[in-house]
Amino acid sequence: MSLITQLFNLLYPPRCPSCGAMVAHDGDWCPACLAAIWHPRRINKPPAVRHLSACYCLADYRGA
Ligand SMILES: [Zn+2]
């Protein structure tokens, strides 16, 4: 981690983008918010898309 990054993190500590709780690294989500959106599952793919064997959705894209 560069000195500039350390100084920036000291002035602006990394925070969860959803609730603002402090997190370890920039871009991380806190465990509560991540658990609320992280629901990986297989979804239906359009029959016309033949080059994919499956499609997956990793999170819910609403709310936070
Ligand atoms: Zn959060």
SSE topology sketch:
Blueprint (H helix, E strand, L loop, with lengths): L2 H9 L19 H7 E6 L11 E5 L5
Antiparallel strand pairs: 1-2
The structure holds zinc ion.
Determine the strand fraction and express it as a percent band.
15-25%
Strand order, largest beta sheet: 1-2
Helix content: 25-40%
Structural class: alpha+beta
Q: Whole-number average pLDDT?
A: 88
Biggest β-sheet description: 2 strands, antiparallel
Q: What distinguishing features does this structure have?
A:
single chain, two-stranded antiparallel ribbon, binds zinc ion, alpha+beta, 64 residues, 2 strands
Plain-language structure description:
The chain starts with a helix and ends in a 5-residue tail after the last strand. The protein is α+β, with helices and mostly antiparallel strands and 64 residues long. Strands 1-2 form a two-stranded antiparallel sheet. It has one domain (3-59). It has helices at residues 3-11, 31-37, and strands at residues 38-43, 55-59. The chain binds zinc ion. Residues 16, 18-19, 21, 29-30, 32-33 line the site of zinc ion.
